């Protein structure tokens, strides 16, 4: 079917005056038309790395201090606060409180030990991040085209091995903890029921602690903890890969580009920041409930509801709102600090990766076969 020359719906084709060897999607020389993002300014990257390194160093120092304070308070609360709470039980229940007292003492010691280990890991991570940042952003000591390793590369490697061992331990420990901690629900439920029954049998009349409910709580705890374990495993694995490649480059060895790993770590950090925001929102709701509880206790509105408690227990409840308020404020402070640390870590990882990838790949060297260890550097 042909159209008349003046048909507006089917205009004649435009003349093509391009050479035969120059297609429409090519430029001179036959190269395809592509767009590449401009390379970031090295000076801007160094400035960002310098600032993020400094902020991370100070933030990790604060986190280590908060960890020590929180761990010490938690250990003392479990050991002595738990004993004081059990001492408020009637004399008939004191004979059955021996197991709970022993468990609280063991939990306090474990909390104190884990706090010390966690603070040490934070200190080692801060040292490694600081050494890497100072090495990369120092143009005089390490010019961009240098292929020699960092002056303190042996120390970085020792820190890497130590942190790698603890990261792997954290991956497995978190996964096992999330999966096994709900298995304590049957034990703690039965222990609580025995203590309440010895104190006042009327207190256990309204408790529903049948095997079906305990099984449901246990399975629900395991299932709900699986996503947390998987996400934590992936985040720690990404951090481990980034650390290994960065230290490998610092030792003057050939390694893969860091940009992809840094981008993946930044995405995981962003997800963690979003989750921290939700946790902080939940904590704000708890804080509002604590304030409501404080007003209710001070106004005497709950005096009738608490009449079944002994005078010693009612006197101890006066301190409860203050303790809960302190815990909420402490938790909000930790969440805010973790949010800032994740934000600074994203800047640190992207800047460090860009500066390292811009350098020539050094000649490969033999890598030590020494396995990762959990001992301190």
Automatic annotation (TrEMBL):
<feature type="transmembrane region" description="Helical">
    <location>
        <begin position="268"/>
        <end position="297"/>
    </location>
</feature>
<feature type="compositionally biased region" description="Pro residues">
    <location>
        <begin position="1"/>
        <end position="14"/>
    </location>
</feature>
<feature type="transmembrane region" description="Helical">
    <location>
        <begin position="226"/>
        <end position="247"/>
    </location>
</feature>
<keyword id="KW-1133">Transmembrane helix</keyword>
<feature type="transmembrane region" description="Helical">
    <location>
        <begin position="55"/>
        <end position="80"/>
    </location>
</feature>
<keyword id="KW-0812">Transmembrane</keyword>
<keyword id="KW-0472">Membrane</keyword>
<protein>
    <submittedName>
        <fullName>Uncharacterized protein</fullName>
    </submittedName>
</protein>
<feature type="transmembrane region" description="Helical">
    <location>
        <begin position="163"/>
        <end position="185"/>
    </location>
</feature>
<feature type="compositionally biased region" description="Basic and acidic residues">
    <location>
        <begin position="15"/>
        <end position="25"/>
    </location>
</feature>
<feature type="transmembrane region" description="Helical">
    <location>
        <begin position="100"/>
        <end position="121"/>
    </location>
</feature>
<feature type="transmembrane region" description="Helical">
    <location>
        <begin position="317"/>
        <end position="342"/>
    </location>
</feature>
<feature type="region of interest" description="Disordered">
    <location>
        <begin position="1"/>
        <end position="35"/>
    </location>
</feature>
